Structure formats: C-alpha cells, structure tokens
C-alpha cells in the first residue's frame, strides 16, 4: 500500500503577551502554593481596566497576536468574573485574540466568557494522573477535566499543558502528554512549563530537569499534537539561548511574551527579539487579519 500522507505542518510561530496577578493566589498545590509566612508573596488587586487596555495595546505593538490575562484563583467568584469580562471585551476590541486563566469554571461562567468574546481559556493538567496526588490536594484531576469539557462545549479554544521538573519521573511526562493527546480534541495551545523554583515553597530544591529531557518533551508534544501551538512558557528565564533554540527546532512555535507569568518573571522582550533575529524567527503579524500569520 502507498505510504500514509505526512502530518499537517504545525502553525507558524506565535508570540503571546499577557498579564497575570496573584489575587487570591492561595492555590493548594505543591508547585505554586504561596504562604505569607514562607514565600512572603503579597496578594494583589486586579489591575484597573484602563491599565490592562494600555498593556494590551503595547503588546500588540510589540508583535503579540494574543493577550492573556490571569489570576491565581481556585475558581472565580461571579463578582470577579464581571471585572474580567470587561477586560476581555476591551482587549477583544483592540483586534487581539484573548485568553484568560482563572482556575476552575462552572458551565454558566464559561458561557458568559464565550459571550464576551473570549478566544482561549488556559487550564493546565499540570502533570500525570499518577503523580497528581503528590502535587495537588485542593482539586482532583477530574475537576480539571470537567472545566476543560465546559470550555470545549462553549466553543472556546483550549489552552492546556503541564509543568515539568517537579520531581516527576519520565513515565509521568509521557503520561501527561498522553492525557493531552487523548482529550476529545487536541488543545489548540499546549504550554510546556519548566518549574521555576521559589524559595519557601515545597518543591524548592528538587533536582532540576535535564535540559535535553525538556527538549524531548517539546518534541514529543509536537509529534502527538501536530496542529497545536506548542508554547514555551514558565522557566525561560533559566534557559540559555541555545536551549530555547533547540526547543524551537524540536517543535515549539509559540512563547509567552511579557515581563511576568503568574508569579514568576519572564525574559526581557528586547532579548526575545534579538534571539528571534538570530534564529530567523518571525512573529505573527497583528497588523493584518488574525488568520493571516507570518511564517517562521
């Protein structure tokens, strides 16, 4: 028989900018739990709407095609969701794709976000089902899958990946990628995060993941989910240019572009531009229609 056709090419390179805040950030997980007596992380208020709009406008000017807003909540209250919806509508009006990450959602909350014009919702599985109980205690794996189902049913694109370098075994990374690939639909965006160790948190001091093992994780994600955006997210500040280049060549075609992730810093935007120039990578063109993207 003739050989099977080759898989479809991955989407072109995408830069996503965004803002995250730590309001109500007491999430019961080993990798990101913040106790004021240990990590000395203060809660923050949601940013004012106008400040969000200004940051989104600057992000678009700098080449981002999607703007992500997030808060470290277990789940949003309806009152807080009202404020987030105002932000989604304002950013959407700028011609940017919108993404939020707010924790677990009810079906009704998901429908409200869809009506506001939300394009993507980020809700990670974090790790394998087998290792999950060693890391997270305040919600079940099924809770996360239920939120992802609400998001899909509402017609919102799914942004779902995980965190590696949390002391998991190779089998756990394989199992995480299997879970992602076996969802009813591949996530449109798959962020692969490297744990950023924060002093005072339970996972501070765990053995760091070997760089090539991280690159292999990127490569397998690309093979299993050929049409998804595979995004380098947290941990890039600790990666050399050479390691990031290997990730791009292994299949990563998206980064989170901005000064801060949920609670950790991100590489300087000027440094990213210099690296892209060295590698010949072109970001998405936001001056044209959202479906028209530059090639990498």
Could you outline the blueprint of secondary structure elements for this entry?
Blueprint: E1 14-21, H1 49-61, E2 66-71, H2 78-92, E3 97-101, H3 107-115, E4 120-122, H4 129-135, H5 141-153, E5 157-159, E6 162-164, H6 170-181, E7 189-194, H7 211-224, E8 229-232, H8 241-250, E9 254-256, H9 269-279
Parallel strand pairs: 1-2, 1-9, 2-3, 3-4, 4-5, 6-7, 7-8, 8-9
Helix pairs in contact: 1-2, 6-7, 7-8
Quick synopsis:
By secondary structure, this protein is α/β, with parallel strands linked by helices. Helices cover 35% and strands 14% of the residues. Residues 15-41, 260-266 and 286-296 have low confidence and may be disordered.
How would you describe what is shown here?
By secondary structure, the protein is of the alpha/beta class. Helices cover 35% and strands 14% of the residues. It is built from nine helices and nine strands. A nine-stranded parallel sheet has the order 5-4-3-2-1-9-8-7-6, with helices on one face. α1 packs parallel to α2. The chain is globular, with a radius of gyration of 18 Å. The C terminus is likely disordered.
